Amino acid sequence: xxxxxxxxxxxxxxxxxxxxxxxxxxxxxxxxxxxxxxxxxxxxxxxxxxxxxxxxxxxxxxxxxxxxxxxxxxxxxxxxxxxxxxxxxxxxxxxxxxxxxxxxxxxxxxxxxxxxxxxxxxxxxxxxxxxxxxxxxxxxxxxxxxxxxxxxxxxxxxxxxxxxxxxxxxxxxxxxxxxxxxxxxxxxxxxxxxxxxxxxxxxxxxxxxxxxxxxxxxxxxxxxxxxxxxxxxxxxxxxxxxxxxxxxxxxxxxxxxxxxxxxxxxxxxxxxxxxxxxxxxxxxxxxxxxxxxxxxxxxxxxxxxxxxxxxxxxxxxxxxxxxxxxxxxxxxxxxxxxxxxxxxxxxxxxxxxxxxxxxxxxxxxxxxxxxxxxxxxxxxxxxxxxxxxxxxxxxxxxxxxxxxxxxxxxxxxxxxxxxxxxxxxxxxxxxxxxxxxxxxxxxxxxxxxxxxxxxxxxxxxxxxxxxxxxx
Length: 471
Hints:
5-stranded parallel β-sheet; alpha/beta; FucIase; 6-stranded antiparallel beta barrel; 21 strands; metal-binding; 16 helices; elongated; manganese; Fucose_isomerase
């Protein structure tokens, strides 16, 4: 799950350290075992830190193992300046952990070290407990998971197909800020390359994919105009083209502008975006690739972090409508919902059995298929990185996706755009708060409650957390 460094800090007096060494090792072994049992890879310092030279050398050795987070462990009273030297020798996030065994002053050592780090402005988090306590391992694991997600951004490349869509300022970020704050490079790719590649893509694979979709989907509703087998294959060839570009340019995540050039003159990118975000296609299981519609940069950045935390596909949607009488949000937009969300099954056939491919609507004269379904119910973490006066904030909340009987579902979708995918969400935030403060028209979601890890992500990125709950 994550790679965690563990360094135990001791007393600098030789005779005290000699007395305490076995006790420290016993506690450290228990902590390492608990973290390993939780699924993490642990890199323990080769020696206990009992002098200033070891503080630096042991920390450098652990850092060289490319750990996601470094635990500085306090089982006894520990000289605080050892912590300061160790902290300076690593760039990874720090978690100060104290043993709560009352026979030794481990808490005292952690507090003295933490106060010293506070004085120099070195960010860190603190935890305490028995070394074999599963809650302690989970607390450390949250920080490590967050650190792995944050670390995965550095050195990554975002592929932006096209520029700003339809004057949408929230879809465009400052590339210098991305490089400075997150370590992400942005590769600009003209949409014309996508068109050229799609025209040359393997026709046999496109036909195979179309037949696979026809075989497994709830329906492919050809109308002879906006959706034909030829148009669906054009969309599939677009997917093949984008995958080739992703591989050639080593893109870690991407976004496609789409509107208006492609949607007016070529085809919608619904099929491309849905299957890029899916963990499978007609060739079998594959890695998900975050792709944001309308080349939404901050949306894609949010999705990439959510993906690293949850290890699932990530939902992308417009905040389309608030049904105040039900306290339900209709999260709906063209294309972006991965088909996985229809049933959230490892079996693509189970998901696709709930997915319809409808002719696109009047917004998109070039035509193609929209990828329509109603997202399966369950607990969701929702949110987005947005900017206020140029500074990032993570807007975060918990919610539930709901699903209803067939008549109710039909009545709800027909109030907006029935041909598009929908997720009916009950948010743990009042409607007036959300509408007054949310900083974009796009929102993102993953199954489960991942707020603890995302709070840690916000802290490690140095962005403001804007978390909403009722009451």
